[in-house]
Amino acid sequence: MKTIIVGAGEVGFHIAQRLSEERHDVILIDKDPNKIKRVNENLDIQALLGPGTSAHLLKEAGITAASMLVAVTDSDEVNLVACMIARKLNPVMTKVARVRNDEYLDSNLFDRELLGIDHIISPELVMVRTIIDLLEVPGASEVIDFVEGRVKLIGLTVSKDSPLKGVRLSSLPSLEEIFLVGAIVRGNTVFIPRGQDTIHEGDLVYLVLRREDVRSVLSNVFKLKQDPVSRVLIVGAGQAGTELAKALEKKKITVKIVDKDAEKCSALAETLERTIVINGDGTDRDLLLEENIGEMDFVVALTEDEENNVFVSLLAKALGAGRTITRISKLSYLPIVSTLGIDMVVNTRLSAVRAILQNIRKGKVISVAPLKGEYAEAIEAEALDTSDIVNVPLSKVGFPKGAILGTVVRGEQVIIPRGDTVVLPGDRLIIMALRNVIPKLEKLLTVKLEYF
Fold first, then answer.
1. Residue 313: Cβ within 10 Å count
2. Which end of the chain has less neighbouring CB within 10 Å, N or C?
3. Which domain covers residue 426, as residue numbers?
4. Domain-embedded: residue 128
5. 57, 51 in Cβ contact below 8 A?
6. Are residues 396 and 415 in the same domain?
7. The domain that contains 184 carries what CATH number?
8. What H or E segment, with its residue span, contains residue 102?
9. Over the Cα atoms of the chain, what is R_g?
10. Do β-strands 428-434 and 403-410 pair in parallel, antiparallel, or remain unpaired?
11. Those residues with Cβ within 8 angstroms of residue 284's Cβ, 6 or more apart along the chain or in another chain
12. DSSP per-residue letters across 246-270
């Protein structure tokens, strides 16, 4: 599959890296020589210097033979124009544009007949939805929704006091129809567990469970408090901070938002209805104490400065805040941040990758979510009537090692599968797989099974 990426910033570079690792034919275009140099020094792909809105350059990149164009520069206008030109040069290719401006997102400009853009990516808005999911499941380090929220994939860290510490998975037969452990992150290793595997202290376990079972499982099995969130402090009044405040207002949550930009705060105070807008420095200890930081259920650090975000979160924890959510842009920082005591991390690049992946997986894929460290994926797909997975017990399907079927959704039923479960055509499937297994699955299953 040939993909042209316009924009070699953090998002474009990371998407190119990911696709290159999966052996896609990738060409990256950017007008910044330093960014092109970085690509040439670090990635095994072709990089072209110049504007992504140049029809000549897009032709040189081979746009007429490409399957997808992904425009992810920092300029919405450049991204939109690149997609319009691509539509003219190759009407059948898939066109994806990153858009940040609310006016564009809220308008009807993206009708297929007008611009021909197939998919809009707004990593900031995806990140906001991720934060809201985390707020709704206190104690979770990651929450991913599937099938319109009816199925949840929840990442939880096993504490020294957890009832699951030292438990072998095969010894949980009474719980196997309530939740499934779909993946485990242990140190820097991600694996798809089997019945003989044992849960260790410090493991990050990914549970697949029904929405209605979340509260009881976390309270009764993991012994986690599920008190509702009522007070949130946001540091950073950019797009993400503003959209989060708006969403939390609708949920009747008390919100305070802090930003150093006086003009931004003034405009925000007129936009938000119940949120308290504070012009100040979120790293100011006295200011945080004055705003009763110790009474906050969550502190969310969303400035553009990731070092600042880390400091805000650590300071908030030291001053008694309940939990913290920290925006980190560079993936290389994630392993380091996790050792500092940061509760949860959100990342716009992972949001962008998630949106892109569902468009490159073969077959009828509905959504894709990279898991911790991106070494595994959770894939929501539809089982087709031509596939080998339907109408036979799962025990006879032969999923390769490193992949597991976590949930089967059939109409109103949400089924945690067992060996004797039979998948029917039209079922929605949630599958967890290691990244190195996905190409094998595609190669093995594409002939008769196209849902990947």
1. 28
2. N
3. 358-445
4. no
5. yes
6. yes
7. 3.30.70.1450
8. helix 102-106
9. 23
10. antiparallel
11. none
12. HHHHHTT-EEEEEES-HHHHHHHHH
Per-residue pLDDT of the chain (452 residues; tens, 9 = 90+): 899 999 998 889 988 988 888 788 999 999 999 999 999 999 999 999 999 999 999 999 999 999 999 999 989 999 999 999 999 999 999 999 988 877 776 666 556 556 678 888 888 888 898 899 889 887 888 888 888 889 999 988 888 888 888 888 887 755 667 888 889 988 878 899 888 899 999 898 999 999 998 888 888 877 777 778 999 999 999 989 999 999 999 999 999 999 999 999 999 999 898 999 999 999 999 999 999 999 999 999 999 898 999 999 999 999 999 999 999 877 666 667 766 777 888 887 777 777 776 666 655 677 778 886 667 888 888 887 777 778 888 888 877 788 888 899 999 899 988 888 998 988 998 989 888 887 766 654 554 444 44
* Judgement on whether residues 264 and 315 belong to the same structural domain of the protein: yes
Residue 83 one-letter amino acid: C
Same domain, 12 and 49: yes
| Number of domains into which the chain is organized | 4
Residue 369: in which H helix or E strand, if any?
strand 365-370
Residues 372 and 422 in one domain: yes
Please report, for the domain that includes residue 83, its CATH number: 3.40.50.720
Residue with tokens 């949001």: 351
CA distance 331 to 347: 8
